[in-house]
Amino acid sequence: MESIIQIGAMEDVNRERKSMNFEPLILEYSKNIESEFKHLWNSWEIDMNEKEIYEVISGLVARQITMAKQFSFCISGWTGDFAPIILRSLADNFINIAWILKSPLERSRKFIYYGLGREKLNIEHRRIQMEEDGIDTENDPMIEVSTQWINFHQYEFLTDVNVGSWSEKSIYKMAEEADCKGFYNYVYQPFSNAAHSAWNHVGKYNVEISENPLHNNLLIPRVNEGEPHYDYFELAAKYVEKAISAVHIKFDIDRYDQNAYKLLKEQIDKLINAFYEEE
Questions:
Q1: Domains of the chain: which residue ranges?
Q2: Count of alpha carbons within 13 Å of 230, Cβ hemisphere only?
Q3: 72/210 Cα distance (integer angstroms)
Q4: pLDDT tens digits, one per residue of 101-149
Q5: Strand runs (DSSP E) across the chain, as ranges?
Q6: Which of these, 25, 29, 59, lies nearest to 44 by C-alpha position?
Q7: Among 31, 80, 177, 181, which residue's Cβ finds the most Cβ atoms within 10 Å?
């Protein structure tokens, strides 16, 4: 797992968290990444005959930025308990983007149609539950809004429901076909342990050996306090950079003159160096 603070180094992390002010860096990154994305969108030559490409890819990149920005402002969430869940979502989103970019029009349309079908299924599930609860479904605002959203794209009665994977492939196969299998192995899979609360996460973070010698090394539950660390924030920004970079390369779009991730990394390095010089 990338650049994650190791167990046993919590004291240094705690001192860093209390002594460093990351708020200016967060605000600067937020401003820079929005400017960079605006440049990307305005530099993109859009073919309206294939508008799904630009809608889906830009939407997924916007999703990547949204998650990273909101996570960046939640400093208390920069911990080994919470951060991997967000980073896993960012990794998943990047693999989706990378796979779609291999065949943009076909896969963008597939992505849209799958989402419409899932929304149709959500409506049906809500309708069934409301009827079981004796609630009138005719004027339900959520059903009405969701139906209108589907009909904006295509008529609801023409929308098929697919209960499998939207790509009809496993995320591993998608990563392999998108030439990012290493990213899957090194990032997505390890962070999945936290997202799914697997034992090789829970066993490290949420249990500890009993101090009672009669307990024969019994593992007892622990509500982990967790200490925030900037590495997680930097990784979120890195995965945004990977998504933006992939789009620039695919469509041969010139990069913005200020790279938000590179600027952030330089600023973090300066902050860390200044902290240890003061020590």
A1: 1-102+226-279, 103-177
A2: 21
A3: 35
A4: 999 999 999 999 999 999 999 999 999 999 999 999 988 999 999 999 9
A5: 207-209, 219-221
A6: 59
A7: 80
